[in-house]
Amino acid sequence: MILGDAYREDAAYLDTCRMKRNTVEYDTAGAATEADANELLAFARKLLPVVLDWLKKNHPGLLPPG
């Protein structure tokens, strides 16, 4: 796991979101709610600085310009 064991639950959450997205895309329209989207957005906003910090330390060339 790239970010380490401390983020194992976060990775599982993102995988659950991925599976739900696939279900919505291919099987059942409306399976994801606005609340689901808002929850994922809030999660992503918290995770972004962690990912950017990891990139800065491990792969600074991959950071967005600016």
Task: Label this structure with key terms.
66 residues, 67% helix, 0% strand, mainly alpha
Summing up helix and strand content along with how strands pair, one would put the structural category as mainly alpha
Largest β-sheet summary? none
Element pattern in H and E: HH
DSSP E strands, number? 0
**How would you describe the shape?**
elongated
Number of helices: 2
Share in helix = 55-70%
N/C terminus separation: 28 Å
What fraction of residues sit in β-strands? under 5%
> How many domains, as an integer?
1
Q: Could you tell me the mean pLDDT?
A: 89
Residue ranges: pLDDT <50 for 5 or more in a row? Answer: none
Radius of gyration: 15 Å
Summarize the structure in words.
The protein contains 2 helices and no strands. The protein is mainly α and 66 residues long. The chain has one domain. The two termini are 28 Å apart.
Question: What's the short version?
Answer:
The chain has 66 residues and is mainly α.
Indicate the topology.
Elements: H1 8-26, H2 34-58
